[in-house]
Each structure stands twice: as C-alpha cells, then as structure tokens.
Amino acid sequence: MVWTNTKNSELRERAQRVIPNGMYGHESTILLPDEYPQFFARGEGSHIWDVDGNKYVDMMCAYGPNLLGYGFEPVERAAAEQQARGDTLTGPSEVMVTLAETMVDMVSHADWAMFCKNGTDATSIAIVAARAHTGRRKILYAKGTYHGAAAWCTPRANGVLPEDRAHIVYYEYNDLDSLEAAFKEHADDVAGVLATPFVHEVFRDQALAEQEFARGARELCDKYGALLILDEVRAGLRLARDCGWEQYGVRPDLSCWGKCIANGYPISAVLGSDRVRKGATEIYVTGSFWFSAVPMAAAVETLKQVRETDYLERTIAAGQRLRDGLQQQAASHGFTLRQSGPVQMPQILFEDDPDFRLGYGWAVAALKGGAYLHPFHNMFVSSAHTLDDMSVILQATDEAFEAVKKTRDSLKPHPILMALFGAH
Ligand code: PMP
Fold it and tell me: What is the CA(235)–ligand 1 centre distance, in A?
C-alpha cells in the first residue's frame, strides 16, 4: 500500500480550529517531522494503524502503557467482565482491595497502595504525603528529569509561579555530592528525594543509575530523616517485576506507578511502606474517576500476567534483537548510532548530529517503511513485539540508512528544533 497522509492532514486542520495548537502535551507531533501522523485509527498487538490506514510496527507503545500488546485478550476480558457489573459507581468495588493486595504482594517495599489516574497524580500525591509525614517542605528533584505536568514539575514554565516551585531543590542525578550539598543546605527541611530508576529524558542519551548513587541516596535520606520516592511511572514493569532499585538492594519509602500497570487502562498508583503510612492517612486526595473498577480489573489481570509469564524476558529479547541489528546496520552504512538505556526502553540518537537532522531524516524514512520510531524520545517494547516484528523494523531502517546516506547533504533541521539548538 502506498503511504499517504491525506486524512491526517484534514484532521489536523480541523483540530487546529478547536484544540489549542491543534494538540498539546507529549502526544502533540509538533516537534516531529510533518509526515508523522497525529491521529490513529486502531491498535492490535505490536501494531498501530494511522487514520490513513498506514500500518506500523509501533515502537512507542502509547508512550509506555502498552505492555502486553494492544487489545491483549485476557486483560480485555477482565475489563469487559467488570464493565458488565459496573465501572464508576457510588463507591469502589471489591477489586480495589484485590489490586492493593496484589501490588503490596508484588513490590517489596510496599505495605499499602492508593490509586489515581495519571502519573502526575501519583507523583503529586507522593510529595504531599512525604511533606505531611515529615512536616517538612523541600523536595529534592534531579535536574532535567520528568515527573509530570503539574505546576511543581511541568517542564514548560508558562503559567507557573516561582512560588509553585519554591520548595523544589534541584540536584544532579548520579552525583552524590550534589545530592548531599542539597541536603546540607536544607538539613532539617527535606521531606523527600525524588528520583526515577534511571535517566530517560528527551534529546539525550539515557543513563542507568549507578549503584553507589542509589545506595547513597538511601543513606542520605536515612541520615537526614527524609523519604526516598522512586518514580516508576515510565520504567515500572519494564525493568523488573519490582522497584528498579531492588537490584541494588535499595528500597524506597514511596513509589509511583502509572502508564502500563493496566495495559493501557487509565490508572496509576502510589505505593508506600508502613514508615510513611501516617502521612498517607493525613492527606486529602481524590478524583471522580479514581475509584472506577474497570481499570482496576484490567490492572489485576495485567499484574497476573506480569507475575506468571515470561513477558519481560520476551520483551528484552525483542529489544536486544533490534539493538544488535541496528548496531550492525549502522556500521555497514557508515553511521554511528548512540543506543542507550535498557534494550526494552531504547533511546536511539545519531553521533555527530547536533541538530538531530540525521535522526529525523532517518525516522521519517523508516516511518514510510512501516516502522514507527521516535527521533528524540525513548521508545518502548512490549511483549507482543516478536522477533519478526523487529525484522520488519530492521528492513525499514536498512532502507532508511540508505535514504539518509543519499539525501544527507540536503537534510534540514526541524524548524522548531533549529530555534532550540541553533543551526549548524
Ligand atoms: N513520571 C515519569 C517518570 C513519567 O515518564 C511520566 C510521563 N511520561 C510522568 C511521571 C507523568 O505521567 P502522566 O503523563 O501519566 O501524568
């Protein structure tokens, strides 16, 4: 089938009239090449179809939520059965307690759970609980990391007051000295340290947490009476079936979960240890849809799959195939790729590509070959991605390398990126 984007262009025009900027947030394609579809028609397993009917192997997995495959039957069945009984009722259903028990059993540090809708809800609840628990104000926050879109953490500060962030103190990830300096400066006023399990930020290489940093963060929290908060919203269930720092023997006091815990159904969670139960009982947090039963039933089934199947090992095997294949391909075409982070959450950037024009050109060519890759955001593999899917991607990227080789001299940087990174 010939690649087209007519319907998508029409929808973008309609959206421009009735949606600010035509779209907003992380799913706006404004920073992506024009060819990238803004609107999708459906998803199944590891594939998505855009509104023009183009089919792609999807390496974004809805920016994380798709863990087991779009429309994964056991989860859909559990959701449908709950839907038939009721979803948003006057109070929660039994499944809420079952889900809390499931998460507490699964995640080593957790003794209790609270549920909400988005990752931002979870991180916001965690800092409120930490402040209530300690009676302190400061949250230590790794510079440049993403914890959501509320006033205290949104990366774009328009409409945000300095007062909203007056008690957010920034440190450098993987740099214990900078964390300790922040502690020393605010000694008796640090409520918590917030960190993601590894660094997974846009436009830069990913970086794993150093064991020394993870352990040191825990020790500093204990020394100063602060709480350690791990934000698992993006990496949760893709690194491990537990918190990501469990491998270093480091347990947080609070952890935040979202995105994939119900394989795409809208639910997020805050988990905590008994140490911080007091704080969690004292705060008032809620939402009209936070107690809806369908996403909870979907989560219980997703977590059953997580515990009882090799979904993670298959996800890693597929990610490894892609990484190895790309490594070879890039070399044979005379390019150097920087592939960073875990293979199941890859970030793929080009060496010697300061304004990202090579990466963008390559991604567009791969898109037209049926592979939906992202030129600056980390990607996500699901357990529905087969080795054959990875071969389809590799076929598309092989042609994309060829195309970029030919057009290299005429590639231009994306106009908005040009403003951000400067023309080269
Ligand atoms: N924390 C992290 C680490 C995230 O990656 C995200 C979302 N990308 C969030 C928090 C916020 O989640 P949400 O968009 O569901 O509010």
Answer: 10
199, 259, 347, 374: which to mutate for ligand 1, most atoms within 8 A of CB? Answer: 259
Q: Quick one: pLDDT at residue 226?
A: 98
Domain borders along the chain are: 6-70+310-421, 88-291
Q: Does the beta carbon of 258 sit less than 6 angstroms from any atom of ligand 1?
A: yes
Identify the residue whose tokens are 């300095």: 162
Gap between the Cα atoms of 63 and 379, Å rounded: 7
88-291: CATH topology? Aspartate Aminotransferase; domain 2 (3.40.640)
Q: What angle do CA 97, 125, 342 make, to 5 degrees?
A: 85
6-70+310-421, CATH topology level: Aspartate Aminotransferase, domain 1 (3.90.1150)
- Kindly tell me the sign of the dihedral angle through the C-alpha atoms of 272, 273, 274, 278: negative
Residue type, 76: E
From residue 171, alpha-carbon distances to 105, 151, 182 in Å are 33, 19, 7
Q: Determine if ligand 1 sits within 6 Å of the CB of residue 196.
A: yes
Q: Which atom of ligand 1 is nearest to 145's Cα?
A: 3
Structure-token match 């429309």, residue found: 71
Atom of ligand 1 at shortest range from CA of 117: 15
User: How far apart are the CA of 143 and the centre of ligand 1, in A?
Assistant: 15
Contact 272, 254 (CB under 8 A): yes
Atom of ligand 1 nearest to the CA of 196: 3
**pLDDT tens profile 164-175:** 999 999 999 999
Q: Is 261 in the pocket of ligand 1 (CB under 6 A)?
A: no
CB of 234 within 6 A of ligand 1: the answer is yes
pTM across the whole model: 0.97
Taking a C-beta distance cutoff of 8 angstroms, is the pair 151, 164 a contact?
A: yes
Distance from the Cα of residue 281 to its chain's centroid: 28
Q: Is 145 in the pocket of ligand 1 (CB under 6 A)?
A: no
Low-confidence ranges of the chain (pLDDT < 70): 1, 422-424
Q: How far is the CA of 149 from the centre of ligand 1 (A)?
A: 8
CA 360 to chain centre: 21
Reported as a single tens digit per residue, the pLDDT across 62-118 is 999 999 999 999 999 999 999 999 999 999 999 999 999 999 999 999 999 999 999
Pocket lining: 119 vs ligand 1, CB cutoff 6 Å: yes
Q: pLDDT tens across 187-210, in order?
A: 899 999 999 999 999 999 999 999
In single-letter form, the type of residue at position 230 comes to L
